């Protein structure tokens, strides 16, 4: 069943409606390990590899994404998260592997068709898109496409009913995302947070079942943070599945039902946010290094003890001279 992606006049700021409870309940008995099977997966990925010369950027053996849940994809810089998003949504091609969305293979399907089949990703406002108005960006979203080469096609006039339906949908979404006052403004004039809202609103133009968000909090000032979080949670409350890449661990903890951790192209851990983030192996090996997550008290104690022991050894070596 297609998700109702225009419904809901405003984002539920609490975002803890019945779908949140259902997602948590559905994932309760899923084992906390890479590749764990889910009770109702909307996306199933098998053996996807992408190599750039000698570098294997993505090497995902198996991933299942639970329908109707918010799943975070985290990992250190260069882990392969963005490349993986690009592969799944048809913006790049893997060297190997297959994946099914809602039971249908998507391998080899171009990006705009992937979007029309119900899996859509946000993409950042490029320079060219910044020179279009907000409403023009929304219309481009209806084609499920991105990219400068498509601007001309988009600006071609549409016919009567089709254009009316698209404009109506765009205006509904702009109202919902409180961007209606910006309708005729150039997208480039929006603040960081408003851009993120536009990217999300534009993705919803195709009425997707699954929305993939690439760093939805990047560049968003604190005043808009809660509103953005509310909108993401609202996607789940309307029946959509969300998969997002994010470095902001507070956001991951706040909104995700499940977390998948990638490092060096592979899936190295899975589980609910608290359990994944408390996993010393994850913090130490994949997050601690670049301070994405706060250290646990045990980890802090261990690092302090290591440092003290090191100083002690140095003092003794000095004294022994
Ligand atoms: N087009 C490309 N050509 C060559 N190497 C690439 C290309 N795209 C990505 N890579 C390399 O693949 C690896 C994975 O990159 P990717 O951007 O997917 O990681 P990421 O997890 O999204 O990182 P970040 O969190 O910093 O965005 C990196 O080593 C990157 O340098």
Q: State the domain count.
A: 2
CATH topology of the largest domain: Rossmann fold
Per CATH, the superfamily of the largest domain is P-loop containing nucleotide triphosphate hydrolases
Shape: globular
Distinct small molecules bound, one entry per kind: adenosine-5'-triphosphate
In terms of DSSP E residues, the strand content is 15-25%
Report the CATH architecture of the largest domain: 3-Layer(aba) Sandwich
Uncertain runs: 1-14, 289-293
How would you describe this protein?
With 321 residues, the protein is an alpha/beta fold. It has a six-stranded mixed sheet with strand order 6-7-8-3-9-10, with helices on both faces. The chain has a four-stranded antiparallel sheet with strand order 2-1-4-5. Helix 5 packs parallel to helix 8 (192-203) and helix 8 (192-203) packs parallel to helix 9. Helices cover 41% and strands 19% of the residues. The longest helix is centred in the last third of the chain and has 24 residues, at 297-320. The chain has two domains: 16-128 and 206-316, P-loop containing nucleotide triphosphate hydrolases (Rossmann fold, 3-Layer(aba) Sandwich), CATH 3.40.50.300; 129-189, no CATH class.
């Amino acid at each position: 069943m297609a998700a109702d992606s225009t419904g809901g006049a405003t984002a539920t700021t609490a975002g803890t409606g019945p779908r949140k409870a259902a997602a948590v309940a559905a994932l309760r008995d899923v084992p906390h390990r890479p590749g764990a099977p889910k009770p109702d997966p909307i996306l199933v990925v098998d053996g996807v590899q992408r190599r750039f010369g000698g570098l294997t950027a993505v090497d995902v053996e198996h991933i299942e994404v639970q329908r109707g849940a918010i799943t975070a994809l985290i990992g250190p810089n260069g882990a392969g998260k963005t490349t993986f998003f690009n592969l799944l949504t048809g913006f790049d091609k893997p060297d190997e592997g297959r994946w099914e969305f809602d039971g249908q293979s998507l391998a080899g399907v171009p990006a705009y068709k992937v979007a029309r089949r119900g899996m859509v990703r946000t993409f950042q406002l490029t320079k060219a898109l910044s020179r279009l108005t907000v409403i023009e960006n929304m219309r481009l979203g209806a084609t499920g496409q991105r990219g400068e080469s498509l601007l001309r096609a988009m600006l071609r006039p549409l016919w009567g009913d089709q254009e009316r339906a698209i404009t109506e949908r765009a205006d509904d979404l702009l109202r919902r995302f409180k961007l209606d006052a910006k309708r005729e403004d150039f997208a480039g004039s929006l603040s960081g947070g408003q851009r993120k809202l536009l990217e999300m609103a534009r993705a919803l133009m195709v009425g997707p079942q699954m929305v993939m968000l690439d760093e939805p909090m990047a560049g968003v000032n604190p005043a808009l943070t809660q509103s953005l979080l509310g909108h993401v949670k609202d996607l789940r409350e309307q029946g959509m599945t969300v998969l997002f890449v994010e470095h902001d661990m507070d956001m991951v903890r706040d909104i995700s039902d499940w977390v998948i951790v990638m490092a060096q192209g592979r899936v190295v851990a899975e589980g609910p946010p608290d359990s994944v983030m408390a996993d010393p192996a994850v913090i130490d090996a994949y997050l601690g290094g670049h301070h994405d997550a706060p250290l646990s008290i045990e980890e802090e104690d261990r690092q302090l003890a290591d440092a003290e022991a090191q100083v002690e050894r140095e003092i003794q070596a000095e004294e022994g001279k």
